[in-house]
Amino acid sequence: MNVSSKTGFLLMGFSDERKLQVLHAVLFLIIYLLAIMGNLLIVTIITLDHHLHSPMYYFLKHLSLLDLCFISVTVPQSIANSLMNNGFISLGQCMLQVFFFISLASSEVAILTVMSYDRYVAICRPLQYETIMDNLACKRAVIAVWMAGGLSGLIHTAVNFSIPLCGQRIIHQFFCDIPQMLKLACSYEFINEIAVAAFTTSTAFVCLIAIVFSYVQIFLTVMRVPSADGRTKVFSTCLPHLFVVSFFLSAAGFEFLRPPSDSLSAMDLTFSIAYTVIPPALNPVIYSLRNEAMKAALKKLLSKEEFSQRMVCFKAIIKF
């Protein structure tokens, strides 16, 4: 398909074989539905259970909201392209995809950093926790997370789509990936985007350093705890978060720091999926199945008494 004369791009992320395209669509649809249901469940549980109205779960709720949006930016478009056997994406769709993808990815890194700081204060400075992480501070942190992500997405989109492109507009990826799009730029015309990407990468690296510092302090503090049960409780809370951070940043770092290639290898595709699709689907499993408070809240939510009370309230609201 020749798209050089069209105002759009051709996404070449998956095989041209029809059976593999359908398989990809089915697998992505299953993962997408699981991610949507899992993250919606976390948001619902934390919103309805007043025992979970603490800073840790407040930030977790916003992480789930980010995951809901993040996976919805790329996966539905990719499923539709595979089912229709057409990888064409319009310029407007591509711009929106880049904006929301960068915005939400940046916000995700920021919220993970805030969550690590919250755990650091809770464990290393427990007497000052309520003072430092009060309601106003938590709200300001979340507002800063969303605003920083939006600003990052706006800058990347403005700079990236101001670059003149040469040749066929073919992107070797299943979404509008900036490193792959830079490969289409006319020679030496993408210096501004590289500067912006370098700034964003540096910011992400600073966040990573902050997260590592927080967890080093947490682990040093935990090792001084005499109670084995106390250490187990802290590790069960912190280790899943550290795993999510490591998985997301390492996969994203590999994708953005490697030089773009002329085709998408199996390894490239694996790492792309690893930071765009897997984390939003994996986070609900990590944070709900390994968290006793979340499991208790889920059982309470699904109990007959609680369900009956919710239905009575819901009917009263409708009648009103």
TrEMBL record:
Residue ranges of domain G-protein coupled receptors family 1 profile in the record: 38-287
SUPFAM superfamilies noted in UniProt: Family A G protein-coupled receptor-like
Coiled-coil segments on the chain, per record: none
Highest taxon of source: Eukaryota
Cell location: Cell membrane
Membrane-related topology note: Multi-pass membrane protein
KW Cell membrane (keyword) present: yes
Keywords from the named record: Cell membrane, G-protein coupled receptor, Membrane, Olfaction, Receptor, Sensory transduction, Transducer, Transmembrane, Transmembrane helix
Pfam families the record matches: 7tm_4 (PF13853)
PROSITE patterns, alphabetized: G_PROTEIN_RECEP_F1_1 (PS00237), G_PROTEIN_RECEP_F1_2 (PS50262)
InterPro entries to which the protein is assigned, alphabetical: GPCR_Rhodpsn, GPCR_Rhodpsn_7TM, Olfact_rcpt, Olfactory_GPCR
Spans traversing the lipid bilayer: 20-46, 58-79, 99-120, 141-159, 194-222, 234-257, 269-289
The UniProt record lists the keyword Transmembrane helix: yes
Family: Belongs to the G-protein coupled receptor 1 family.
Protein name, entry field: Olfactory receptor
Species this protein is from: Microtus ochrogaster (Prairie vole)
Gene symbol of the encoding locus: LOC101994308
